[in-house]
């Protein structure tokens, strides 16, 4: 009788541990979101500085995204509100692309991409974000619509990288589109399971 009760308790503990492990993995998949607006024809991040797990008083600033150790996540960039473009012959602003650069740099890089970055460091970024152009830093695996861009960060390795989110305003006269961008940091904790 005691063996039967112990066996049932053991099975319940195993099941509870499994449920907690699944719940833990599910929470690790919670997407990070960066909200953007157009203000005076400039792309502005409206997400609070600490909203995506960056410390409140860190130097990383508004738009910083932190993935904790063992966490992987989709990252959504959402353009909200009025997107009318007030620039010459402008129609409306649309999200265009995401670029990465500045591997473990303390300050924003002067240009994006990994042309001068050691190959092993670039390989880490390319592995985490899948199909990152080495020269330009463009995340070619991004899913892009007018108002939303989605990228996935597998977070296998601990490092920081800067991102540049770009919006364009097409022109009714057929001229070169206007562009605006904003560029905070992503901080990877490493060892993601994605």
Describe this structure as you would to a colleague.
The chain is an alpha+beta fold. The chain has two domains: 1-30; 31-189, Sandwich (Immunoglobulin-like). Helix content is 20%, strand content 34%. It is built from two helices and ten strands. It has helices at residues 2-28, 119-129, and strands at 32-39, 42-45, 65-67, 73-79, 90-101, 143-144, 148-153, 158-171, 178-182, 185-189. The chain has a five-stranded mixed beta sheet with strand order 2-1-4-7-6, with no helix packed on it. Strands 3, 5, 8, 9 and 10 form a five-stranded mixed beta sheet that branches. The longest helix is centred in the first third of the chain and has 27 residues, at 2-28. It is globular, with a radius of gyration of 21 Å. The protein starts with a helix and ends in a 5-residue tail after the last strand. The model is unreliable at 13-28 (pLDDT under 50).
Blueprint of the fold:
Layout: H1 2-28, E1 32-39, E2 42-45, E3 65-67, E4 73-79, E5 90-101, H2 119-129, E6 143-144, E7 148-153, E8 158-171, E9 178-182, E10 185-189
Parallel strand pairs: 1-4, 3-10
Antiparallel strand pairs: 1-2, 4-7, 5-8, 6-7, 8-9, 8-10
Under CATH at level 1, the class of the largest domain stands as Mainly Beta
Briefly note the structural class of the backbone.
alpha+beta
**How many strands, what sense, and barrel or not for the largest sheet?**
5 strands, mixed
Give the helix tally: 2
Write down the overall mean pLDDT: 84
CATH homologous superfamily assignment of the largest domain: Cupredoxins -  blue copper proteins
Helix content bin: 10-25%
The string of secondary-structure elements, in order, is: HEEEEEHEEEEE
CATH architecture verdict of the largest domain: Sandwich
């Amino acid at each position: 009788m005691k063996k039967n009760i112990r066996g049932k308790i053991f099975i319940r503990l195993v099941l509870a541990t499994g449920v907690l492990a699944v719940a833990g993995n599910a929470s690790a998949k919670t997407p990070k979101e960066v909200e953007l607006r157009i203000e005076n024809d400039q792309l502005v991040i409206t997400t609070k500085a600490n909203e995506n797990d960056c410390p409140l008083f860190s130097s990383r600033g508004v738009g910083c995204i932190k993935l904790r150790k063992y966490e992987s996540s989709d990252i959504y960039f959402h353009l909200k509100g009025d997107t009318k473009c007030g620039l010459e012959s402008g129609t409306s602003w649309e999200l265009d692309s995401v670029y990465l650069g500045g591997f473990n740099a303390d300050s924003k890089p002067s240009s994006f991409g990994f042309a001068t970055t050691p190959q092993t460091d670039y390989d880490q970024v390319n592995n985490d974000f899948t199909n990152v152009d080495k020269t330009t830093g463009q995340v070619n695996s991004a899913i892009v619509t007018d108002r939303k861009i989605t990228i996935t960060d597998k977070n296998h390795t601990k490092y920081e990288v800067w991102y540049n989110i770009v919006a364009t305003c097409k022109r009714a006269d057929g001229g070169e589109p206007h562009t605006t961008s904003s560029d905070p940091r992503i901080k990877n904790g490493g060892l993601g399971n994605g």
